[in-house]
Amino acid sequence: MEATVAYAKAEAENLMATELRLGLPGTADDDQTQTTKATTPPSTPRGKKRTTTFDAVEETTVAEEANNNKRDVEAAPPVAKAQVVGWPPVRSYRKSCFQQASSKQSKATKEEAATPASNTTTSTTAANGSFVKVSMDGAPYLRKVDLRMYKGYRELREALEAMFVSSNNGSANLSEFAVTYEDKDGDLMLVGDVPFEMFASTCKKLRIMKRSEATGLGSARQ
Amino acid sequence: MGRGGSRAAPAAAMPPWHALPDEVWEHAFSFLPAASDRGAAAGACRSWLRAERRSRRRLSVANCYAASPQDAVERFPAVRAAEVKGKPHFADFGLVPPAWGAAAAPWVAAAADGWPLLEELSFKRMVVTDECLEMIAASFRNFQVLRLVSCEGFSTAGLAAIAAGCRNLRELDLQENEIEDCSIHWLSLFPESFTSLVTLNFSCLEGDVNINVLERLVTRCRNLKTLKLNNSIPLDKLASLLHKAPQIVELGTGRFSADYHPNLFEKLEAAFAGDGLAVSVSHLHKFHLNIETVNFQVMDLIEDHGLAVVASSCNKLQELRVFPSDPFDAAGQVSLTERGLVDVSASCPMLESVLYFCRRMTNEALIAIAKNRPNFTCFRLCIIEPHTPDYITHQPLDAGFSAIVESCKGLTRLSVSGLLTDHVFKSIGAHADRLEMLSIAFAGNSDLGLHYILSGCKSLKKLEIRDCPFGDKPLLANAAKLETMRSLWMSSCSLTLGACRQLARKMPRLSVEVMNDPERACPLDSLADETLIDKLYVYRTIAGPRSDTPACVQIV
Question: Residues B478-504: what's their mean pLDDT?
């Protein structure tokens, strides 16, 4: 087939130069005649892998990560164990439950998910893993969002806008409202003051309130 | 065709077959339960089309955007049972942006209008609101079955509407939904006169349930066979509940109750010795085996030795699912390896569906599994660490998965994992003739991998790919294939916006959805062709581009 010939040719031409590097260099395929590289995800999950097939495995450096194209990975410093979004493919409610089940203490009642044993960047706060309730003044019912799905405040804000604003009041937008949250201590805080990850790990529920009610919470933010 | 016209007809004067009245064809078609067969019949000629569509009772819409609700209702006016599916499968793992779509409301509204005799409704991965549930309760006087799988957007208030309004409800089956708890005692809204329940499943509900109300409900529904509870029911109450409802044949006790009550089975056994009650507990690590066990779901805490016991006792096992107890734990303290799966595949002759999470695998094991169980229809293996090779030979697992597709000729669903090169896709493309759904992650080396799949796999309907080095060329070269499939998902691959635009231009009956990186300031229209895209979802549709996309999703 013409297409196959084209591919074989392209392979032979070694697409490495044009191929996008996404992560760790090197592949296992020394047997292969072609030398196309396998691209790997930018996350560097574990420092020490059992799977050292990669002869050319190098520690991923910060510089290398910066060269990679942005992918669907939660931001994490290279040293910490990064989690790839949506991997392994386990449903989120199962994840939080599994963490309960494998925790050493036996619990009499169903409690909120405990911190997992390993130093992962999961933010588990509400009863359903990282799902937190979102209420908006004037909206008839609440929604829920999974804070782990967002890389930063901007993404979260856009999601909230999509959820509440577009469906209800077409003309209003989120800048008329203040997005606040209740933290672990039960205090009402304005969203945006602390680094996103810190926020995600302490946030218990979100509340979108009218700006006029949000006096005393500090300078009005975007 | 000119026959039988002027010639002497036989004494009985039967009409020629092609002039038989519609009712006869409708009756004939009622013997074709499979939708694909009915669809084929409808394509034969106009009169068959008419007869078939007017008598279709069950309709399954596998992609809610493939056709509009109005189309469906108009074309099939006599539907009594409808199933509609929404979001792509990867939505289960958080890869689909929130507010992506899949609202059930338009379907409920169209059904309320056009199918007043509707008896069954099933939604999967859709946004179902309380208003939808209220409308269902109010619109269909003979409504009997409501099944919601992996849905969200509703609360116990909606369930209350169903309980109060659906007089003839037989089945309320809630699987893995996100249900808001409004602290409404919805169970108590089933009227005292209500006795028709046969199946009740609320295992995914978080909140508490009034045990007395449940008891009364269960006692008066004499036909209740299947009851799946959540874990708000204390053990001691459970036993007394079951004593009052001996008609129950299948009991589910919700997630993780056994983790906190290791004596669960001893107690239940003592209560029901000899009653033949089948008890299923999900996600259990202390398992109770029944020689009749057909479906078995368990966590990897069962370990290889536990699976060996399953292998030797459950020779009627058809489906096995083993989940990871600690998916993010790199150290892998649990001793569940390829051994467990090999044992089960060797000893369970009826095993045809497997979902297996583990941390290591070998080609040899996969080859053995393939040889043991050529009757697999669904084989989903997830090696937790991406790019994991054969842990003994350090080779890619191409040979192992190739053996699976070569041996299992009836395989309809496959998920691959571990270190894989383009070679495995060549095997899959060439051999997996009946494969309908394929999931690929962190695999392949080049465009060739995707090309092998799209140019082979004769029966492919759903393809979902993430984090693979597949680019524009195989997608564009195989554009026509996409119209023979239900949908394609590609995320974190090497696709450019230009290729998506080209695809959309070339194939007007496909909807090409691009989900862009929300960090990007500018809208898609102003971006250059060379821009890489993050997520692509392509599906065939007769309904044209949908109008309910959120800001981060654009139809090219």
Answer: 97
Which ipTM score applies to this complex? 0.82
Instruction: Please report which residue ranges of chain A form alpha helices under DSSP H.
Output: 2-12, 62-67, 92-102, 153-160, 196-202
User: How high is the pLDDT of residue B292?
Assistant: 66
Cα distances (Å, whole numbers) of residue B281 to B3, B187, B427: 65, 22, 38
3-class DSSP state of B251: strand
CB contact under 8 A, A116 and B328: yes
Contact B382 A88 (CB under 8 A): yes
Are residues B231 and A108, on separate chains, in Cβ contact within 8 Å?
Answer: no
Q: How far does B325 lie from chain A, in Å, by closest CA?
A: 5
- Parallel/antiparallel/unpaired status of strands B487-491 and B535-540: antiparallel
Q: What are phi and psi of B528, to 5 degrees?
A: -75, 160
DSSP string for residues in B94-105? T-SPTT---BSH
Return the SS3 of B286: coil
CA dihedral sign of residues B274, B343, B330, A92: negative
The C-alpha R_g of chain A, in whole angstroms, comes to 22
Strand B437-441 relative to strand B378-383: parallel, antiparallel, unpaired? unpaired
Query: For residue B533, what is the nearest residue in chain A, using CA coordinates?
Result: A71
Tokens of B461: 């309907």
How far apart CA B436 and CA B413 sit, in angstroms, is 6
Contact assessment for residue A57 and residue B458, using Cβ atoms and an 8 Å cutoff = no
Q: What is the DSSP letter of A188?
A: E
Nearest to A159 by CA among B519, B457, B236: B519
A14 in Cβ contact with A35 (< 8 Å):
yes
3 state SS of B272: coil
Measured between beta carbons, the chain A residues lying within 8 angstroms of B549 are none
Instruction: Could you list the beta-strand ranges (E) of A83-211.
Output: 131-136, 143-146, 177-183, 188-190, 203-210
Q: How high is the pLDDT of residue A82?
A: 58
| DSSP class per residue in B15-31 | PPGGG--HHHHHHHHTT
Q: How far is CA B453 from CA A32, A58, B317, B432, in A?
A: 20, 32, 31, 10
pTM for the full model? 0.72
B386 and A131: CB-CB below 8 Å?
no
Across the strands, what pairs with B515?
B535, B553
Contacts of B178 in chain A (CB under 8 A): 93, 128, 131, 144
For residue range B286-298, list pLDDT tens digits in order: 445 566 667 777 7
Sheet with B278-280: strands ordered across: B58-61, B81-85, B120-124, B145-149, B171-175, B199-201, B226-228, B250-252, B278-280
CB atoms within 10 A of CB B418: 31
Contact B491 A72 (CB under 8 A): yes
- H/E stretch holding A59 reads none
Q: What distance separates the 2 farthest-apart alpha carbons in chain A?
A: 70
Quick one: which of B158, B156, B149, B151 has its CA closest to B126? Answer: B151
Smallest Cα distance from A41 to chain B, Å? 7
Question: Using CB atoms within 10 A of its CB, is residue B7 exposed (0-12), middle (13-18) or buried (19+)?
Answer: exposed
Q: How confident is the model at residue B520 (pLDDT cuts 50, 70, 90)?
A: low
Supply the Cα-derived Rg of chain B in whole angstroms. Answer: 26
Query: With contacts defined as CB-CB under 8 Å, which chain B residues touch A95?
Result: 327
For B150-161, write each residue's pLDDT tens digit: 999 999 999 999
CA atoms within 13 A on the CB side of B318: 5
